[in-house]
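All the exercises in this workshop are built on plain-text protein records. A learned vocabulary of local backbone shapes supplies the integers on the structure line. Once this layout is familiar, the rest of the handout is easier to follow. An example says more than a description, so a record of this kind follows:
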Amino acid sequence: MESSSQQASFGRYLQAIRLEKRISLDQVAEETRIAIRSLEAIDREDPQGLPPEAFLKGFLRAYAKAVGADSDEAVRRYDAHRVMTRKTEDAGRPPERVRSGSWLKLVAALALLCVLIIGSILVWQWVSPPHIESATTAADPGAVSPESPPGDSAENRPAPSTTLKPAQPASPPHILMVSATENTWLKVVTDQGIPAEYNLKAGEHLKLEARSTFNLLIGNAGGVKLNLNNKPVNVPGKRFEVVNLQLP
């Protein structure tokens, strides 16, 4: 029976099946169109070399399919590995009391800074000379100065005109239509947001919107047709190849 750490080993699981069947990484890279360095990072479970989180599970499924492994098992092991890694990182953090002590010191320093600022304002108001208005202004705020022509009071002067610029219209969003001609899975990141994964069957359609970009990971390059803003998009790759596209 495997230990908990072995059950969370997704890279060694795929590597063991690949070596057992005598399949090289070059063969896996040629079939999946995944870079060798990414496959090597998966074998080593190297967090620095692994592909982005949005595409890693798709890479694991493609790797598993190429060597005849269980793709769901590979993803399950990766999820278990990620949970175990987070628990290890949390165990190495300082206790809550230490962090709360640093927080109290920061609050005390900010409070002292506020007291100094308020004190400086009060001292400046105390030592600054009082403002004395002229006799003419105090007696008659609407009086006309000697230099002003008759009838040229502040009330009679026209207010300056203000020209408002028209608001710029917002650019329309990009519309991406995905039509599945064969069964395929699809992972989409719109506008650098949260990734979404879809399992499309032959004949199904998917409509997506984005303000700036689409980042697509397609599990079956020959099984989809793309149309961006009413214009067809060429999908490089053959049937069952995994491809990565960024549109537009």
